[in-house]
Amino acid sequence: MILQSLDEPDKEPVVVIPTIQNTVDDIYLMISVFILKKLDPGKSLYTPDRKSMYDIFSDNERMELYEKSREIIKDFNFKVVFNLLEGSLLLSQFESMKKYTNDYEVTVPAFKNEYNIMTGKTEFRDFLKKAE
Questions:
Q1: Could you tell me the residue ranges of all domains in the chain?
Q2: What is the structure's pLDDT at 104?
Q3: pLDDT one-digit tens code per residue, 34-54
């Protein structure tokens, strides 16, 4: 996950490698730490050698941080938009989104035009069209 400051576009982006099973919780943890600036995780989420959340925190530490993050989020009124591409891991983590009280919206592709290296052709897909 990459966070880039809009206020300071020349500032180096923050890169955090999330967990696989708790990616939504990792997103909200990043929001609590880097955007709301209301949670100090005790360790840096960003490491120059790009360690993953698995390497930085134990399972128990992460679970405690996720719970703290959920509590912090309750006090703020904001919306998170999850713009998910076809095959996104987050499509399987929808239930995790429900644990947070903020507004959220999930968008998925309606149309896709993409080059297929296997066929050597550009292929168009209409996800709104019913299967025939």
A1: 2-126
A2: 94
A3: 889 999 999 888 777 888 999
